[in-house]
């Protein structure tokens, strides 16, 4: 267990300058050997210290595992704190796709008006908003339920309401095609589509959500079967005798 070499006040000040981003785990294995990080599905969350400079600019400094160790800060706890701090320091925002592309809204019945672009205020490394718990819950409430999250790039994600008209397979094909034809390799995030379960406040790869729900359904059926069997076995001797008495003789 790490023993902090900085005060709680210094740690709090440190967190006020922290900003997270998400990157592909597979594409950044060497980088992640240095960076403090937290793995999430096929992605990794990393943190940067946004340090103000004398000339008014802001310098982004990677938070490393070695640096945290030198300060006596536990990496796992820091990454949890960093996500919470980043949501406060660099809030997420969402806008309908037409508004994002053209600066204006399209008719309500337009399909594109039902897709939202989510990022941070400066649209830089903003895909990390998908890990902002309060932002995602608010987005789900405003859009109207469970969400599909399409990783457009490391800078933004697309949010759309879960709809039986659009299968997970179809959405994955779209993401894969866009990644191969329109997104630079360094900006590519994932070929997967993610799912946000509003009731559970849980974000996960779409297939993992489907598997989880299938297991829950199977478990409920099993429990109901056990209850039915137990009910039949638990009938009292009097009930059994009365039922036998009412049965016609052969």
Summarize the structure in short.
The protein is of the alpha+beta class and about 250 residues long. The protein has helices spanning about 10-15, 30, 65-70, 75-90, 95-100, 135-145, 170-180, 205-235, 235-245; strands at about 20-25, 35-40, 45-50, 60, 90-95, 115-120, 145-155, 155-160, 195, 200-205.
List its salient traits.
250 residues, alpha+beta, six-stranded antiparallel sheet, 9 helices, globular
List the helices and strands and how they pair.
Blueprint: H1 8-15, E1 18-24, H2 29-32, E2 37-40, E3 43-52, E4 58-62, H3 65-70, H4 75-89, E5 92-96, H5 97-102, E6 115-120, H6 133-143, E7 147-153, E8 156-161, H7 168-181, E9 194-197, E10 202-205, H8 206-233, H9 237-246
Antiparallel strand pairs: 1-3, 2-3, 3-4, 5-6, 6-8, 7-8, 7-9, 9-10
Notes on the structure:
This protein is an alpha+beta fold. It has nine helices and ten strands. The relative contact order is 0.10. The model has no long low-confidence stretch (mean pLDDT 88).
């Amino acid at each position: 267990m790490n023993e902090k070499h900085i005060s709680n006040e210094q740690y709090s000040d440190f967190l006020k300058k922290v900003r997270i981003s998400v990157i592909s785990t597979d594409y950044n294995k060497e980088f992640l050997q240095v960076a403090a990080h937290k793995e999430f599905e096929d992605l990794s969350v990393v943190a940067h210290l946004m340090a103000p400079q004398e000339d008014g600019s802001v310098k982004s400094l990677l938070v490393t595992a070695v640096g945290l160790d030198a300060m006596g800060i536990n990496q796992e706890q820091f990454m949890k704190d960093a996500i919470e701090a980043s949501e406060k320091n660099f809030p997420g925002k969402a806008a309908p796709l037409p508004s994002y592309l053209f600066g204006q809204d399209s008719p309500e019945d337009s399909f594109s008006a039902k897709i939202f672009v989510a990022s941070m205020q400066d649209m830089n490394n903003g895909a990390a908003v998908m890990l902002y718990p309060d932002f995602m819950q608010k987005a789900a409430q405003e859009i109207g339920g469970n969400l599909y999250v399409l990783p457009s790039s490391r800078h933004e994600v697309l949010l759309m309401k879960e709809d039986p008209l659009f299968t997970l397979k179809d959405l994955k094909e779209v993401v894969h095609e866009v990644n191969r034809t329109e997104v630079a390799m360094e900006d590519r995030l994932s070929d997967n589509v993610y799912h946000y379960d509003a009731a559970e406040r849980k974000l996960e790869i779409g297939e993992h959500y489907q598997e989880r729900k299938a297991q829950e359904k199977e478990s409920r059926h099993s429990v109901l079967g056990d209850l039915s069997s137990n009910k039949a076995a638990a009938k009292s001797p009097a009930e059994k005798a009365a039922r036998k008495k009412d049965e016609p003789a052969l």
